[in-house]
Design a protein that fits this description.
One of its GO terms (biological process) is DNA transposition. One of its GO terms (molecular function) is DNA binding. By secondary structure, the protein is an alpha+beta fold. Helix content is 39%, strand content 25%. The chain has a single domain, classed as Transposase Inhibitor Protein From Tn5, Chain A, domain 1, CATH 3.90.350. It is built from ten helices and nine strands. Strands 3-2-1-4-5-9-8-7-6 form a nine-stranded mixed beta sheet, with helices on both faces. It starts with 5 loop residues before the first helix and ends with a helix.
């Protein structure tokens, strides 16, 4: 495993994924980074742990690609490589604030996709301007806020969450939007969470840049779907596949095993077998017929 070329193995994985992908219109693809906590070479050099960036088709529930990154702070190159290699036409790409850069939007638009990128303090001027714009519109044109707002309430995991999504067109009022290709709208998400056990309520407001036209329901769905990469990919890899506990770390073995875990997870997700990932993995270990059913889909 350690002598296999990870780039070649990854290309085989990508080719296979492109064959099984459901190329539906407006498929949402989330891009996010993950560090394998115990993959460092020695206890004195924990920064050598493998940090990779993954792309995840949120609605189909499959991992599309994994790219090794030099470090957590240097994810952008891996993100650009992923956009180059994936077939993303007619999709919406979502990513966190680290990827909220003009060169990332250039790549996405040139490949025929749209984007929703989180806006944080690393783009301080535009963030300040966006907050001021929402404040101005609320003060001067409250009817525009009502027209372009979508509210959703869900109750799960012992809490009630209300998400209020407001989406406004980018106008000439903005001064710091030139670097972002086809920047069409700005999105504000206000999340209010009520804990049924502690009876405490918390509220947070986050902002996003997007090339999407005004559709607050779609904008809300896209932002919410992004976090499936954490809940349905990274969490499953950590808890079910015990990826963070793995001490595989020689040469290319760490990266290759990460690719194979995603391959195994994809096989389970696209199979007709019912049950949790954990239970299906156990059945594959116990029963040759079940394992054949998963592998030879």
């Amino acid at each position: 495993m350690s002598i296999l070329d990870p780039d070649t193995l990854n290309q085989c994985f990508i080719s296979w994924v492109n064959q099984i992908r459901d190329h539906q219109d407006l498929q949402i693809i989330a891009i996010h980074g993950k560090t394998l906590k115990h993959s460092y070479q020695s206890s004195t050099d924990k920064l050598s742990a493998l940090h990779s960036v993954s792309a995840y088709a949120t609605e189909q529930g499959i991992s599309l690609i994994q790219k090794k990154s030099d470090a957590k702070k240097n994810e952008v190159k891996a993100v650009l490589d992923i956009i180059d290699e994936l077939q993303i036409k007619k999709t919406v790409i979502t990513a966190d604030a680290m990827s909220c850069l003009g060169k990332v939007t250039d790549k996405i638009i040139k490949k025929g996709a749209d984007y929703v990128l989180q806006l944080k303090a690393n783009q301080a001027l535009l963030l300040r301007e966006t907050k001021a714009y929402f404040h101005k519109v609320r003060r001067d044109n409250p009817e525009l806020i009502e027209k372009n707002r979508y509210t959703e309430t869900t109750s799960e995991h012992g809490r009630v969450e209300t998400r209020q999504c407001t989406q406004l067109l980018v106008t000439d009022w903005f001064d710091h939007t030139d670097n972002w290709n086809k920047l069409t709208s700005v999105i504000e998400i206000q999340r209010t969470r009520y804990n049924k056990t502690t009876h405490k309520q918390t509220t947070e407001t986050v902002y996003y840049l997007s090339s999407l036209k005004i559709d607050p329901k779609l904008a809300n769905k896209t932002v919410r779907e992004h976090w499936r990469i954490e809940n349905s990919l990274h969490y499953v890899l950590d808890v079910t596949f015990k990826e963070d506990d793995s001490r595989i770390r020689l040469k290319n073995a760490t990266e290759n095993m990460a690719i194979l875990r995603r391959l195994a997870l994809n096989l389970i997700k696209i199979s007709d077998k019912k049950g949790s990932v954990k239970s299906i993995l156990k059945q594959c270990a116990w029963n040759d017929e079940v394992r054949d059913l998963i592998i030879i889909f």
